[in-house]
Amino acid sequence: MFKSLLVFFLFITISTQAQSEFKFTTNKKKISIPFQLINNLVFVPVNLNGEELTFLLDTGVDETVLFSLDETNDIKFNEVETVKLKGLGKEEAIDAYKSSNNVMSVKSFLDKHHTVYIILDQEINFSSQVGIPVNGILGYNFFKDHLIKIDYRKKKIIIYSNEDKKSRNQLKSYHKDSISLELNKPYVHLNITKGKLKQKSKLLIDTGNSDALWLFKVKNSEIIYPNQVIDDYLGRGFSGSIYGKRGRLSALEFGGITINEPIATYPDSVSLKSVNFVENRVGSIGGEIISRYTVFFDYKNNAIYTKPNARIEEPFEYNMSGIEVQHNGLEWYNETIEEKTNGIKVYTDSGFENRLKVRFYLKPIFKVSNIRPNSPAEKAGLKIGDKITVIDNQNMQRMTIEKINKLLKSEEGKTITLEIERNKKPLKIKFQLKKIL
């Protein structure tokens, strides 16, 4: 399975009191917001102080975080002060700024007093890992005051007005789980099964984590590794790279349904040193599972409602190649094509007219960003920094990170052929996908 692209657990080193409150600016009883779904993650269009941006919608963070702006963006921030942020990863706290009383809207959902934490460290920017420009993360304040539905199949978020009492009638056909809100994040108790051992486990509901399940093997924890695990690079947090293990569990019970053989991820102890654990928490349930449901978040009544969608029976797969690929911008490319003439040849004094034309266009650049030790890709000779120009005879012009990830976890035994560029020299590399979990 591909890495957890966005495992951003935000822990602020100063005490904050949220003043934000999103309100309806329309008389309608609900607001529908389309979103982009990439690797199980929800990206929504937002307007911050007059600028159109894209944010990850993440129940796993408290405050709103901004970490990337385009050169064309010109945002003025109010009431700025210096703070430090800590997060999942091995490095120390990072410098940031806190800005209060900003105006943020998501369509007709408006907050005139929004607090934003601004990070200037460009290594935090994860746009290259998802293949679209991402400017920040929106968390608790979006969810706290209204009933919110995320329909992963239709790729729509529905926000219901508190005056719309009829909207709650549809919840009767959904499974209800009680949640607790601690440090402004939702937690749920679920049964996790390893072999014959079933454990009731307290998990963060984290829409900003693309993996299925994260479990923390820490002091006094009863979490036990599966019989077979692999060492892997898991992603980046606010404080650095995250490493750990992956393994397949027997089952997880969520939304009144038993989910068989989900893949669990276990961050190492170094990555967990900055995590501020709430009492009895053992991990997180992420987008690979949550996206298999239609979900209602009801923070005001401490509940979550779920109904499985068409993906519920899909097996849990992972990236069998051992490589992580990131989007490294765009480059100009040209090719020579023959102009169509409907069979008519034009003769001039110098001979038949040359119908060959040169066409220029932009195509994405994809590079290998990480390689799992002893993986098929490493054994075949791939290296970090290799530029992928062709994958399985497909030009990279119409490729996306999501399509590449899907290909690399497609089927055991599949031969992957890559044409790469290393030090400006072309190479061709082949390897077979091998299932090890």
Automatic annotation (TrEMBL):
Keywords assigned by UniProt, alphabetized: Hydrolase, Protease, Signal
Organism, as annotated: Flavobacterium macrobrachii
SUPFAM superfamilies on file: Acid proteases, PDZ domain-like
Signal peptide span: 1-20
InterPro entries associated with the record: PDZ, PDZ_6, PDZ_sf, Peptidase_A2_cat, Peptidase_aspartic_dom_sf
Family matches, as PROSITE patterns: ASP_PROT_RETROV, PDZ
Highest taxon above the source species: Bacteria
Domain Peptidase A2: 53-89
Tagged with keyword Hydrolase: yes
Gene Ontology molecular function terms on file: peptidase activity
Name this protein carries in UniProt: Aspartyl protease family protein
Segments forming domain PDZ: 368-410
